[in-house]
Amino acid sequence: MIIETLIGFTFVAALLTLLVPDEVANRVGAALSLVPLVGTLWMWAQFDGSGNALAGGTLSFETKFDLLTLSGYQVQWFTGVDGISLPLVVLTAFLTTLAIVSAWTPIDDRQSQFYGLMLFMEANLLGMFTALDFFVWFVFWEATLVPMYFLIGVWGGPRRKYAAIKFFVYTNVASLLMFVGFVALTFGGLGDSIDTLSLPEVAMALDAGGNVSSFMGLAPGTLKLVAFLAMFVGFAVKVPVAPLHTWLPDAHVEAPTPASVMLAGVLLKMGTYAMLRFNFTMLPDIASDLAILIAALGAFSVIYGAILALAQEDLKRIVAYSSVSSMGYVLLGLIAFTEFGVAGATFQMIAHGLISGLMFMAVGVIYNTTHTRMVGDMSGLADRMPVTVGIFVAGAFGYMGLPLMAGFAGEYFIFVGSFHSTVIPSAPLFTAAAMFGIVIVAGYLLLAMQRTLFGPFDLDADYEVGPAPFHDVAPLAVLLLAVIALGVAPDLFLDMILNAIAPLVGGGA
Amino acid sequence: MVGAFDYAPAIVLLPFLSFCLAVGVALSGRDLLPKGGALPGIAATAGSLLLSAWVFLTVSGGETYNETIYTWAAGAEATGSLSQPLELTFGLLLDPLSAMMLLIVSLVALLVHVFSLGYMNDEGETGLPRYYAGLGLFTASMLGFVVADNLLMAFMFFELVGLCSYLLIGFWFRQSGPPSAAKKAFLVTRFGDYFFLIGVVAVFATFGTAAFAGEESFPHLAEQAIQGEATVNTFLGLEPTAWFTVVGLLVLGGVIGKSAQFPLHTWLPDAMEGPTPVSALIHAATMVAAGVYLVARMYGFYALSPTAMAVIALVGAFTALFAASMGLVKREIKQVLAYSTISQYGYIMLGLGAGGYVAGTFHLLTHAFFKALLFLGAGSVIIAMHHNEDMWDMGGLKDRMPVTYYTFLAGSLALAGIVPFAGFWSKDEVLYEALVHGLGTTSGLGTALLVAYGMGLIAVLFTGFYTFRMVMLTFHGEPRTETAREATEPGWNVKLPLVVLGILATTVGFVNMVPVKDLTGAEIDFLHKWLYGTEGAGWAEALGTSGYNYHHLLVADYGAGMTAAALPSYLVGLLSLALALFGAGAAYVLYGGTDPDPYTDKLGVLKDVLYNNYYQDEYQVWLAEGVVLPLSKAADVFDQAVVDGVVNGVSSVSLFGGSRIKRIQDGLVTHYAAMLTLGLTVLLVGFAIYGGWF
């Protein structure tokens, strides 16, 4: 019941925070967020699951009971974690606490609502990563949109309304598409061969083969293909896979720093997590048929996102586009259907969550101090805020894939995994093409750092520019340490991930 | 029994600890360590040196070490085209090559630390903890690279070396030059490392392992695969031989970047923006050396491919000549040294590519000492000249700085390749190997080696000239400025490293006097014996990294297929010595007077081309700023107008209509919550009706 306790507690904590006065909301929010953090760390320590949640593996912290019946289907409260979801659960709680602390400086208005929404989002994310019944999962999935909508729309920048609406509508339309796809596959295709929409049951029914029947005039094979595409496109918006990415830079630029941290750090992973669970676990044969397309999309996202990042003048937009690039690697790793490809993709979700969180926070700290994020507006910040800049540089090198930091581990696993893939045709060429991202990422980050952080100090400002306060820098330092720890000892998560993805890659799919 | 090998990890960890300590001090913002962190750095590198010496002695006793010490990531099953699970590990490979390199790196690092006391501390520099943190991490990364037992670990430390170069070249970040140079150094080498990384990934995918030495190493598996004794994966429909050549050349991309070979050499002259002791470290023993060391480390793999060998030799020889020609006309002392570094690493590449495993390694050894010496000597001059580096403002420093002068002279004689200084013996052997294998080998590789030999030989002439032009302009004649007139020699912390390196630059060549051996028959080719071991026994048999193994591969018809022509080494040596003396003599005649003229200006357009580095920087900057940046701007416009335009278009047309968007922007979020619910309901109801649930 630990999962339910944590989710429940976090919902209550969100309500409590909403009720306290604005002056203390920051500390109350941070303190309350420690409970799910400690709880998930405890889950990590106690984790005893094995195998894949959707392939008959042993779940850890499993809870299952019936809720209600919906036209013949039993809706269940069904939660539990395996080696894929647990790292994401830990990431969620870890980043939420740090994002809340990083909000102390920039958020100076309606604090209790802000921190309440942050916790509300955390509760939904925890639910989304642990739920294994489609109905419950989908409720959490959709409900994460609401707090993010408000976080952007209320505390955002000048074009916050536009960005929030675009974010909401774009990802929501995508969700509907995904919903149609899944429902067509299960209600339509599987019909009576299943009696719940629990994800393991659906996955195993599909795995058994021959269960899918025609639906709306679509032959079983076509139905699976259509369902795959609908779900894939739906999730691809969330990831985001180019060219479905244009909501992301707008959302990031307008969002307040802590919301950006959560958006890049956790919400994007919802897309790849769901892809892994639905597309690649339930319909691996369709995925293999489309391998060349998916690998090409992954490589395209990497290069296209990186090239766009190179053109940006706003530090936050640079990091935003670089997320498109980094998430492209995940897609490439997933479609490889090799041990290191899929495990690397999962690891990269965590690594990118930490590193992009770090970078958005670092940009936020600079913005708190300089009140600008435009590359051309400032130079030589290293002179005034050496510690922040030091961490910024370290984080940027993490983004560039410096060995012994988490990003290198994730990317390297993906590269080595996709290179020897037997699913992707001409795998070495796709891998090599995507790998060129490591050159472009160095280009745009080094260029931006040279212009803003180094050189003679210059900023057109009538206010003091000095070192950032401790509570701004501390989350950065914690994140950096986490990035290094995972880079030196990837086994902190990799072991359980490998264990969980093994059923998906056995025999090269 | 606890021996040197048990302590070997400490060789890497000690400088790393000094880095951690210095970072801690830098963060505290207070002056917690004496000399700003120099002393822990000196102690750490001295400890590394002692341990390296111990390892060296142990290896001399015939013992070697090849063990995994940490499993970084390990798979459980074979997937994709692999036949065994992947294991990504860290380990130590301590054989004669790495033992020798450990000694070089830790010694030069120690001397650079000591020298920094004079160059940085005495000059009232701020940010010293940051400086010593950088030096410590640099040393640790390089040492980690040297002892790496597999290609992935080597790559990882290779990248860390790149990071450190970035941090140290950009040390004076408040000026605009150093950050730009630092960026360029990292970016250009990253471009090379891109190919290296593909190579690393390809090695794993091909062999399932990236170990350098032993029965299960990838060079050994490659050898067996070519002979049909083992099966490995090949990709893109290539035969094993062709695929191995591709993989070897991919890894070579990283070598060309780090060792500043054409066309990725452009970062190195800019890197002179860093503090001079850092230049010494980068050029002599760490970053630039890392590239060629990698070729030597996986020589068993390259020796299988005549094409790869030819490419290595030709790239090296061309770079040697190309860089030497640019060194002829430079004004600043460090620029001359920068181009000489590029050129000398070209020679090392030439030696390795020409089948001279010992020759290339030998030149790596001698160059490390004489180039460290020259950079530190230049540093001493720069201190005395109050950080003016223009040689035309110097002159007459010979009498004012005698220790610097005589040690610098020793280094210059070594660089120019004048007998009996270190560089003579090693450069001579490089050229000798190129010539005999070029003459003896009948395939295209032989022709390539002869061409390479020719370029290397002309470069000898240039080297002699630019070296002594530098010596004459800096130290001889009359002082040309007030600063030069009042120059005095810095303190002991500058002179001590110079003297140590001066002695080494003079004598280290004696470890492998092949021409003398050929003349007298005395068995004095110690380095040769050191790197060869005993054929078919001991470490040479167990590790497969000895000169004997490489020799077999080089001459085998399934390998590079080389044959050596019979030529006495002393005759070949005399030719290059004559050219070096001619070049040096010409420089002495032209610039040795009291008030020399800028003769190279008379070269006219040619001088401009050389002075501007054949406009190599211009075209690379144009590629970056004239092609890639505009391309990205265009992509951005496309993204905003077309990709996002479609999104906005779809949303305004089919979902809301333009006016609706405006109305919705009143901030009433309930509209969206309603829309979400509505959409869901419609869909559910739709399905429900269709599915006949009601």
Automatic annotation (TrEMBL), chain A:
Signal peptide: none annotated. This is NADH-quinone oxidoreductase subunit M. The keyword Transmembrane helix applies. One of its GO terms (cellular component) is membrane. Belongs to the complex I subunit 4 family. The keyword ATP-binding does not apply. The chain crosses the membrane at residues 84-107, 114-132, 138-155, 167-190, 226-247, 259-278, 290-312, 318-337, 349-367, 387-415, 427-447, 473-494.
TrEMBL record, chain B:
It is found in: Membrane. GO terms for cellular component: membrane. Residues 148-441 form the NADH:quinone oxidoreductase/Mrp antiporter transmembrane domain. GO terms for biological process: ATP synthesis coupled electron transport; electron transport coupled proton transport. Residues 84-132 form the NADH-Ubiquinone oxidoreductase (complex I) chain 5 N-terminal domain. Its main location: membrane. The chain crosses the membrane at residues 6-27, 39-57, 97-119, 131-148, 154-173, 194-213, 241-257, 278-296, 308-329, 336-358, 364-384, 405-425, 445-471, 492-511, 570-591, 669-693. Keywords: Membrane, Transmembrane, Transmembrane helix. InterPro entries: NADHpl_OxRdtase_5_subgr, ND/Mrp_TM, NU5C-like, Proton_antipo_N. It is a multi-pass membrane protein. It comes from the Archaea. GO terms for molecular function: NADH dehydrogenase (ubiquinone) activity; NADH dehydrogenase activity. NCBIfam families: NDH_I_L, PRK06590.1. This is NADH-quinone oxidoreductase subunit L. It comes from Halolamina pelagica. The lineage of its organism: Archaea, Methanobacteriati, Methanobacteriota, Stenosarchaea group, Halobacteria.
